[in-house]
């Protein structure tokens, strides 16, 4: 048990990004889905004709790129995804004594963040694993990671879909500020490919796997090459069923299909687009106004990475013009939507060039609905 001092200055002192080796292109996904659709629609022609079964709709690689900006995605395991007899990754279950898959990818990102922040296990007091799904309810993935890294203190998991990373950074900020911890490791092991319906053209292309990590610590202990003061945090949630997964522990008692398509990610994409863009723009300008800033004062926007057209629309509402890739970097062309990790990938890859005093805004928006932002200033 330790007693720490409260800290007025809280900073981000390092970030880590782990990218899976395997890439799946739009063309590969479309070829698999279209072959699956041909077989399904032929085998079920009579039922489809009688209106008792819906046909599987074919996908189109040029639609995907135009509608979303996504060209490819990285996945933890590629085997099985393109197999029309399977249409989901084939991931081997590990024994209880072995390191879990999600802890493994979390550790890759965590170690990179510790190196970037110049921190040892003994400098860190808490681990938060925050993402769209954890592979089990308990024990927490965060405690498994904490144990592997030899960190004393405490760890816990939290789920906030697309805003899991920003909301966890908010909690880390509050913990360091209040003195509950000197430094907190926030990790986003987004292992989402098992939750994708690869038979559904509306959503089969949207997501990719990744792991990111960020160290939040006291300003007076930070000694890394790139330190960002956290000037403020803001969060907002508004209930919506437009992005949903009914996967959960109640399935066993419901007597419904535990593997039904409603248990996988599904959404009303167009409605999400229309409703979330104005909310996000208003949230961001409101957050800046609280600190006396205008959107034009921001040097870099590390925005959530769901759809390039959404990011451009939000930026246009804020700036009155399209931003260039230097102002609002896009990473979703390579990574696709990585749930909560997208804005942290953008931060990880695009922060070292900022100059002292430059302002940056890290922001997520998505399921819930949820919006989370952190206003940062380079030291
Ligand atoms: N190929 C060909 N045609 C297609 C395809 C396809 N792959 N997909 C859809 N179409 C068709 C549609 O069926 C529709 O046809 P019709 O007009 O005959 O009905 C037509 O194309 C137009 O479809 P849309 O109106 O849906 O097309 P959009 O331009 O809206 O683009 C998008 C679809 C890209 C999904 C877009 O709406 C979008 O990106 N919306 C925002 C969604 C968003 O940001 N959601 C956030 C989700 S992420 C999140 O919150 C985290 C959740 C946790 C992670 C889960 C991990 C698994």
Automatic annotation (TrEMBL):
The record ties this protein, via CDD domains, to:
KAS_III (cd00830)
Q: Name one GO molecular function term.
A: 3-oxoacyl-[acyl-carrier-protein] synthase activity
Biological process (GO) annotations? Answer: fatty acid biosynthetic process; secondary metabolite biosynthetic process
Q: Which residues form the Beta-ketoacyl-[acyl-carrier-protein] synthase III N-terminal domain?
A: 156-223
Please indicate which superkingdom the organism of origin belongs to: Bacteria
Task: Please list the residue ranges annotated as the Beta-ketoacyl-[acyl-carrier-protein] synthase III C-terminal domain.
Answer: 291-377
UniProt keyword terms in alphabetical order: Acyltransferase, Transferase
Q: What NCBIfam families does the record tag this protein with?
A: PRK07515.1
**Protein's name according to its UniProt entry:** 3-oxoacyl-ACP synthase
**Species per Swiss-Prot/TrEMBL record:** Pseudohongiella spirulinae
């Amino acid at each position: 048990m330790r007693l720490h001092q409260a800290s007025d200055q809280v900073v981000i002192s390092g970030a880590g990004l782990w990218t899976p080796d395997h890439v799946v292109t739009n063309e590969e996904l479309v070829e698999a889905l279209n072959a699956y659709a041909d077989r399904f629609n032929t085998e079920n022609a009579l039922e489809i004709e009688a209106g008792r079964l819906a046909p599987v709709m074919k996908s189109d690689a040029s639609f995907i790129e135009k509608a979303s900006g996504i060209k490819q995605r990285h996945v933890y395991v590629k085997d099985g995804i393109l197999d029309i007899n399977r249409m989901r990754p084939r991931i081997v279950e590990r024994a209880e004594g072995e390191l879990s898959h999600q802890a493994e990818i979390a550790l890759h990102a965590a170690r990179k963040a510790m190196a970037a922040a110049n921190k040892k296990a003994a400098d860190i007091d808490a681990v938060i694993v925050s993402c769209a799904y954890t592979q089990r309810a308990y024990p927490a993935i965060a405690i498994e990671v904490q144990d592997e890294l030899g960190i004393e203190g405490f760890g816990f998991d939290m789920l906030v879909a697309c805003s899991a990373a920003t909301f966890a950074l908010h909690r880390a900020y509050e913990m360091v500020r209040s003195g509950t911890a000197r430094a907190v490791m926030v990790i986003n092991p987004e292992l989402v490919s098992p939750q994708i319906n690869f038979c559904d053209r509306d959503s089969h292309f949207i997501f990719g796997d990744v792991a990111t990590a960020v160290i939040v610590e006291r300003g007076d202990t930070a000694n890394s090459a790139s330190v960002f003061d956290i000037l403020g945090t803001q969060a907002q949630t508004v209930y919506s069923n437009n992005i949903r997964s009914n996967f959960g522990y109640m399935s066993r008692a419901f007597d419904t299909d535990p593997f039904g398509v409603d248990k996988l990610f599904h959404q009303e994409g167009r409605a999400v687009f229309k409703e979330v863009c104005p909310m996000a723009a208003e949230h961001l300008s409101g957050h800046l106004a609280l600190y006396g800033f205008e959107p034009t004062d921001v040097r870099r926007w590390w925005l959530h990475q769901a759809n390039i057209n959404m990011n451009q629309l939000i930026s246009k509402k804020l700036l009155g013009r399209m931003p260039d890739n230097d102002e609002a970097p896009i990473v979703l062309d390579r990574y696709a939507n990585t749930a909560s990790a997208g804005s942290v990938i953008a931060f990880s890859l695009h922060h070292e060039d900022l100059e002292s005093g430059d302002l940056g805004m890290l922001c997520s928006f998505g399921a819930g609905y949820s919006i989370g932002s952190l206003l940062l200033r380079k030291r």
